[in-house]
């Protein structure tokens, strides 16, 4: 009756609808999904809830889930590979109908057994060995574009602040490291280990301020800085201005993501469509859940260098 069955008479339908209004009846969504063999829940496994990148991503995921009548379970790993596997167990135990896995922290061989248990889509991740759909931005090309911009501006003392280089499992920061190494090598610039900041936080404004203080103590300072985050770039610039350091005359700064703070502070950065990435990945996940074909299964989203006043 409530599902609009064609063989129910108009008189019966009106009588049931009137009874529903009088009783203030609300269908039990869990029971509806259970009857269909579904939980009505998907999980989004992300690194950090408090990062602006995640706001855009979750907005896109949420819009699609809302249209599909699904709830979202948000699981925060804080870059802990063990936590990621613990959350993937939700798929194995059928507590969710599908999972969106952002920036995979484990090797694929650890994730593959969970992927065999249900619908899984990698988002903001690219893994050659994976046999599941992926939606991502090419972080190597994005970082390369930013670094080439600095080289073309005449900079040869270029500092970088990203996640640890030795974390080969990081599908976001790893390609950016490789781009830094490749661009400098092609330009005939030897990497100065003092310009490589891998022990400074890479996610917020305070990290950027800390980074500025570290560079300020150096005798031979870099003339340019590439960070993996607009938040870090913003913190660096704020602290630089407080100490009378001119941007970009004394040091040029490039961020990544094109977050609102980058536009507000006129920071050169690399744009990536976070909301659209979340939307596209979610649409693919629901096609998997519904048993519909997915083509293409690997989607590279566009990126663009946005040049502003900090370079």
UniProtKB/TrEMBL annotation:
<dbReference type="InterPro" id="IPR028082">
    <property type="entry name" value="Peripla_BP_I"/>
</dbReference>
<keyword id="KW-0804">Transcription</keyword>
<keyword id="KW-0805">Transcription regulation</keyword>
<dbReference type="GO" id="GO:0003700">
    <property type="term" value="F:DNA-binding transcription factor activity"/>
</dbReference>
<dbReference type="InterPro" id="IPR010982">
    <property type="entry name" value="Lambda_DNA-bd_dom_sf"/>
</dbReference>
<feature type="domain" description="HTH lacI-type">
    <location>
        <begin position="1"/>
        <end position="36"/>
    </location>
</feature>
<dbReference type="GO" id="GO:0000976">
    <property type="term" value="F:transcription cis-regulatory region binding"/>
</dbReference>
<dbReference type="InterPro" id="IPR046335">
    <property type="entry name" value="LacI/GalR-like_sensor"/>
</dbReference>
<dbReference type="Pfam" id="PF13377">
    <property type="entry name" value="Peripla_BP_3"/>
</dbReference>
<keyword id="KW-0238">DNA-binding</keyword>
<dbReference type="InterPro" id="IPR000843">
    <property type="entry name" value="HTH_LacI"/>
</dbReference>
<protein>
    <submittedName>
        <fullName>LacI family transcriptional regulator</fullName>
    </submittedName>
</protein>
